Each structure stands twice: as C-alpha cells, then as structure tokens.
Amino acid sequence: LDLLGTEEVDGFYDVIEWAGVQERSTGRIGSMGISWLAMLQWLVAARRPPHLAAIIPWEGSTDPYREFGRQGGIFANAFLEFWWRLQITPQQYGYGTRTAEELAADRVLLFDEMQRREFIDDWYRERTPDLERIEVPVLAAGNWGSLHLHQRGTIEGFQRVGSEVRQLLVTSGTHIGPFYEPWAKARQQRFLDRFLKDEQNGAEHDAPVRLAIRGRNQIEWRDESEWPIARTEWRKLHLDASDGSMGWDAPPHAATTSYSANDGEQRFTFTATEEVEFTGPMALRLWVSSSGDDVDVMLHLHVEDRDGNVRLGIAPQGGPIALAMGWLRASHRALDEDRSLPYRPVHRHTDADPLVPHTPVALDIEIWPTSITLGQGDTLVVRVRAEDDELGPMAHNDPTDRAELRTYTTTLLTGGEYDSALLVPVIPAQRLA
Q: What's the half-sphere exposure (Cβ side, CA atoms, 13 Å) at 167?
C-alpha cells in the first residue's frame, strides 16, 4: 500500500489500457472522481496512456508537499492522521483478517514519511505530476472552501496542463456535495459525451473558467476567459501595527507589535467605503522577527459586517472555515524564482535558512485563491496567527514539528522600510447580491 507511488499509478495506467482494447470498448477511456481519485488522474494523465481521452479531476491536489503534507513547510499532522485512520486503514488488503504486523509490513505510512521528510526530495517528486505533459481535455473542479488540500492544486493543474481544451469550475459547498448536484452531473455528462463519444455538442467551446462568486448574501455564477482574471487590478493593502489597520496608503510611521508564538495573534482590518470584490490569489509581504531561530505564520481571512456579524466560508465537512488561508515557516522563506509571481509566491522547500534572533526578515506568504465581496461598511479581517489548534483535522500542531517554535515571541514590523502589505485581486465593480 504505497499511495500516490509509482506502483499505484502503474496500476491505473494498466486499467486504462486494458479497457481501451476490450471488444466492447470504443478505445476512448475517460476518468472522473473526487479527492484521491482526482489526485491520481493528474498523475496518470501525465504518463499519457494512449487510450486516455479525457479527465475530470474534481477537487484533486497536484502538489503533495505544498498542498497535502506540509503547507508552507509546516507538517499537516492532524489531517494525515484523521484521513488515514478513517479512509485508508479500512481499505488495506487483509484488514480485519491479517495481523497488525503483517499489515504494517505491506504499507508505506504517509504520516511517518511526511513527518520525517521536512524538505522536497525524490520521494515527493515521484508523487508530483508533471502537469505540463498532460494533453488530453481536462475539466477540473475546485472549491473555495477546500483549503488545506485540493483548492490550490486544482487551479494549478488547470493553469499548467498542456491540453488544448482545459476548463475550470470553482464551486462553493462541501467537499462531496457539489459533485452530485444536477448541474454538475449535466456538465460532466456533456464533457464526456464530447470527448469519449464524439458528440458534437459544443462542450469544447464552454467557458474556460466558471466561478461561484461569493457575494455578500449569495453565490452568483460567472464565466471568465482565464485565470487569474485578466481585468484584475492588483492593489496593496498596507498593514499598520500601530492600530491593526490596513489601507490603500502606506502608514506614516514605522511600528511593531509582538505576540506569543504559542497561541498569540495580531488582527489587521480594512473597512470598505464602497463595494469591492477580491477574486483570485493573494500574497502577503510580512516583515517579522523572532526571539528564536524560526517562526510559523498562519493566516486566516474573514469578513465582519457593520453589525459585527462574521462571514465565513463552507468547509469540506459543511462547517465554517476562513474565506482564505496561507501558511509559511520562516526558515522556508526562500523563493523558487522561476515559478514565483507577485501574487503567487512559490517557495523552494529544499533547505532551511534559520532566523537570527531579533533580526527582521521579509516573508512572502502565498494565500490560496479566494472570492470575497465586501459591501460598504464591511470589514476584511486578516488574522496573523501563531497556531490553528481549533481546526481539528486541519490543524498543524504536531509536537515534534512545532514544540520549540511555540516557546518564542514573534514580532511584526510595518511602515517605513518594513512595508508589510497584502496584495489583493480587485475585480472592477459589478453589482452582486
């Protein structure tokens, strides 16, 4: 049992090719599925099985390090343990009939591997699809609330595949629910009919991007031609540690604020004077120092209306979740310059560069794509946090990974030479509900 490993992908490849030459087969094989079944589709499509004709990876990550095991370099222990226990252990061959020792001898435990592999190595690379090699038509579906795992990877997959026909849906709802909605099944059927049965239904001309824009009171579907949206106006909201505010103008003076790296946080707020929509990726340039040699930064974004009501997103299991999230361990701050963009920093995660205590450094923190609409008087809240223990299966609180870091004090610096700022994707005004 070696999930995402070469043997599993080989098996998927063999099934596609077996099906493609059966007497009852048209020779055009498609694949469709959610979560793990989507992650595998990216891997096998990059292998280019001759009979594979189309794929529908629905909420499937594409980067096992950055999206699955170590967001921002921080070990995602709670999810790996929760998911493995509920979804994988009962599926292993011989479960319930073989001894624990026999089962352990026949599996690679992702928790152990990802816990001990702090940096990207050949083990992670084996499990990372070469997206540019994918050439078959792709209908990729993501979900704004699928933070911590699939949302980033779905959009990365759409952007990087070499397919002539590539389409992106981004939904809002639970992890499983939207897949079975009537509109979703109709879209899946239309796509597969076109590329597996050669029905001339025009599916190849459907909008390349269809987004569930999160309005103030409801979802509004909108078609776009590309991602990020071409008409995006990239603007900076400058942080001010003196009063916890954010604004379009840089603060007049430098300021600092400090909190416990165990359970502290600092909030920064921006109140809209008119309706504004942020749809796309975000990035935070944050100047920090630590009393120790490292610091973990966790970002959670939400909205508060003028009456103080909090607006959150829908998490994979249906509960509330932040509207956007980002993570970074400061010692992992080195960027992959070839892949990074101002609105989407990509970190190398190949070695550590410890901090010098009490010496400021700039962190460029990727915030996964989002859709947030503010009405007049609504406030965007950015929580710069030391921990996310309350997130249950999405928490990063492994004692072997974070214990020492939680004993330090974190300091944030803003203004002057320390221009900490949130880069936001402003979409020109359209009236939303």
A: 20
